[in-house]
Amino acid sequence: MPDDTAVQSADAGLARVNALAPEEFRAEFGRCLEVDRWVEGLHFRRPFGSRSELLDAADRIARTLTEDEVAAALARHPRIGEPAGGAETEAGWSRGEQSGFTAAEAGLRERFAAVQADYERRFDRIYLVCAANRSARELLDDLTARMGNDAATEERVVAGELRRIALQRVGKVLDS
């Protein structure tokens, strides 16, 4: 079994993450999921011996998010179909994640916007989904299906989608 030094030297992204100063680490991982407890939990576990160790830790901590933490993290996410704000890197990630939606025909985007508005009235939050590599049709189908959820089920679904987005973004941090 290779030692941690050999694994890290073979993975420049992991070595870079492990070597980040605390404030740089917090900034980079805050772009993945802006939940202080999640970021601090990852920071506390450094150094990571492998990507899978980092991703497993990120997943485990994200599975314990509270409703308040989910709500606060949602505030940083743009609606599907709206321009992303925030830090340049984070906005670029959002544009890329939503590229399947923005390429869709106008009529489909309009139908989506109408159902999305219904969702927001029903659940009093934005519709959050891990949109990467998904077409506008897939997103509309998901949104429509989720309209049938009760509030507790939807809370769990949103937390799961937030976790999926965070894990994809951790991969982007490692690959940057």
UniProtKB/TrEMBL annotation:
NCBIfam families: PRK13798.1 (NF010372), UraD_2 (TIGR03180)
Catalytic activity: 5-hydroxy-2-oxo-4-ureido-2,5-dihydro-1H-imidazole-5-carboxylate + H(+) = (S)-allantoin + CO2
GO terms, molecular function: 2-oxo-4-hydroxy-4-carboxy-5-ureidoimidazoline decarboxylase activity
Entry keyword set: Decarboxylase, Lyase, Purine metabolism
Domain Oxo-4-hydroxy-4-carboxy-5-ureidoimidazoline decarboxylase: 18-170
Pathway(s) where this gene product acts: Purine metabolism; urate degradation; (S)-allantoin from urate: step 3/3
Keyword Isomerase in record: no
Chain segments annotated as transmembrane: none
Recorded superkingdom: Bacteria
Protein species of origin: Streptomonospora wellingtoniae
Top EC category: lyase
Pfam families, per database record: OHCU_decarbox
Tagged with keyword Lyase: yes
Entry's EC annotation: 4.1.1.97
Protein name: 2-oxo-4-hydroxy-4-carboxy-5-ureidoimidazoline decarboxylase
